[in-house]
Amino acid sequence: MNAVYILSGLGIFSLLAEIFSFRKILFPIVLLGLLATAGLLVMDWNTGTSHFSNMLTFDNYAIAFSAGIAVIAFLWFLMSRDYFENNTHVTDHFALVLFSLVGAVFMVSYSNLAMLFLGIEILSISLYIMAGSKMTDLFSNEASFKYFLMGSFATGFLLFGIALVYGVTGSFDLGKINQVITAGSTEFSALLYAGVLLMMVGLAFKISAVPFHFWAPDVYEGSPTVVTAFMSTIVKIAAFAGFFRLFATCFASVSGEWVNVVQVIAVLTLVVSNITAVYQNSVKRMLAFSSIAHAGYLLITLVALNEISASAILYYVLAYAAASLAAFAVLHNVAFENENASAESFNGLSKRNPFHAFAMTVALLSLAGIPPLAGFFAKYYIFTVAFESGYVGIVLLAVVTSLIGIYYYFRIIIAMYLKAPETTTPVAVTTMHNVMLVICLLSTIILGLFPDMIIKLI
Amino acid sequence: MNENVTQAIQGVPLNYYIWLSTALFVIGVLGVLYRKNAIIIFMCIELMLNAVNVLLVAFSAYHGDGAGQVFVFFIMAVAAAEVAVGLAILIVIYHNTKTTDINVLNKLKW
């Protein structure tokens, strides 16, 4: 619970900093605050406290994901320092990011549907503004508008689903809804299933699963690169953790009714996103499709729901976020002038900045799932979950699609090492970026070497 | 809750409310999908949210439970915030393109 207070306090402090000219010390304070948030969350481990008359429950699942989000946000702030510095409204951006983190914490710790709704909205409304933060750039405007439109459209579906579930069960509380559903009053069952499916549609929009993904590539491509990094890591994690929390706890007893739909969505997501990613020339757009593909792998855990699903998801999102942040940081530096850099702009990066080329290589290998990096074990655990629950077909399909994934990730690696550079000017980087990349790489390797650290947690 | 209002709401069969709000919701969805003017799309999104509000209030009255009505207040507050941001985005777009037709927003492939 302290996490919510600290994050909101930091957000308000950022707004005040503009008035009282604290701008210089704001950045270190925010970094410290995020570490403190993660630390305080971990101290509550195993206590499982509820707050606000049982609206938020910080069980181990919520704590693990909230602390993960705080750490990823820490790395993200290191990465986006120079973006903020070049912007006149730096404090406003800080406040928006911090408030959206509050929303993310709500989304992983809710035990009442009202909090799920509020969390999604707090997260999204801040992000609509951040996506459009380059006001004179039409691409950014368009990304922001599409994100807003699709976000509120999805919210409509989610709310209609919530209303129908409320109509059947008479409560917004996850525990009570679960009781009513398990008791099996069939009086309004058609309404209940309609509600569950509508909520699934709303949340599938948020995690950008096929066929509700069409907004994601555009929004990811048009937004400033640092904002894209935020959306494809923190937002995706929070949305998926919220999705899983709802369906794995509250609606688990009627899983027979929705599991086939999730299975179809997962299969479509894996196939469509991986194949479309092959045809992308813009690296940012390719990473957008890759992030949709990772949502597909995550959905497998929900299809094959068992007791290690939650740990597998936690491990997967941490591995994915570390690699993905590193890839976006390199992209941000390489394509500093040209936001929509094609694969050619990575030509010969190994000569222009060997460390960046190495970092990008490790990040892409981890995303592709090459051992011994974290991305490999992440996929391995998800496939294990599916295998143990008897979904062999979907595992085979996922293996094939991750082979397709290797193709488009390796295209960039080949460009970096084997092609001649277009210019020989070294890529300028700040120390902050190098520190952030080192942390990301170390965590990718350490998570890969010692997967037991995370996998036994929840 | 005022007893008369509750009784008045309960005087109508619950099915009617469900059909009414479903119809409003579908109109909103179709509007979002087919209209080209950004302002009208905003109105259609509001229509979707208000369909949900009608449904929640009806269920709340039938269950005799106040939570549904509190939820409606959440939705109203959030919808107001959302529209404020949405209109701000639209004004920025208007500054750059001098139109509110969403067909100009085709720089990124759909």
Outline of the structure:
In chain A, 77% of the residues lie in helices and 1% in strands. Chain A is an all-alpha fold and 458 residues long. Chain B is an all-alpha fold.
The 3D shape of chain A can be described as globular
Integer average pLDDT of chain B: 88
Domain count of chain A: 1
Strand content of chain A: under 5%
Largest interface: A-B, 40 and 44 residues
**Whole-number radius of gyration of chain A?**
21 Å
Q: For the record, give the distance between the C-alpha atoms at the N and C termini of chain B, rounded to a whole number.
A: 48 Å
Question: Which structural class fits the helix and strand makeup of chain A?
Answer: mainly alpha
SSE diagram, text form:
The complex is a heterodimer of chains A (458) and B (110).
Chain A lengths: L1 H19 L2 H21 L5 E3 L4 E3 L1 H20 L1 H5 L4 H20 L3 H19 L6 H32 L4 H10 L5 H18 L8 H8 L2 H26 L4 H24 L4 H21 L5 H26 L14 H4 L1 H15 L5 H15 L3 H27 L12 H19 L2 H4 L3
Antiparallel strand pairs in A: 1-2
Chain B lengths: L2 H8 L3 H21 L3 H26 L3 H31 L13
Helix pairs in contact in B: 2-3, 3-4
Describe, in plain words, how this protein is organized in 3D.
By secondary structure, chain A is mainly alpha-helical. Chain A has one domain. Chain A is 77% helix and 1% strand. Chain A has helices spanning 2-20, 23-43, 60-79, 81-85, 90-109, 113-131, 138-169, 174-183, 189-206, 215-222, 225-250, 255-278, 283-303, 309-334, 349-352, 354-368, 374-388, 392-418, 431-449, 452-455, and strands at 49-51, 56-58. Chain A has a two-stranded antiparallel ribbon with strand order 1-2. In chain A, strand 1 (49-51) and strand 2 form a beta hairpin. In chain A, helix 3 packs antiparallel against helix 19 (431-449) and helix 14 (309-334) runs antiparallel to helix 19. The radius of gyration of chain A is 21 Å and the shape is globular. Chain A starts with a helix and ends with a helix. Chain B has 110 residues and is mainly α. Chain B has one domain (2-104): Helix Hairpins, CATH 1.10.287. In chain B, 78% of the residues lie in helices and 0% in strands. Chain B has 4 helices and no strands. Chain B has helices spanning 3-10, 14-34, 38-63, 67-97. The longest helix of chain B is centred in the last third of the chain and has 31 residues, at 67-97. The relative contact order of chain B is 0.13. Chain A binds chain B through residues 114, 117-118, 121, 125, 128-129, 132, 135-136, 138-139, 141-146, 148-149, 152-153, 155-156, 159-160, 162-164, 166-167, 170-172, 191, 214, 217-218, 221-222, and chain B through 18, 21, 25, 28-29, 32, 38, 41, 45, 48-49, 51-52, 55-56, 59, 62-63, 65, 67-68, 70-71, 74-75, 78, 81-82, 85-86, 88-90, 92-93, 96-97, 102, 105-110.
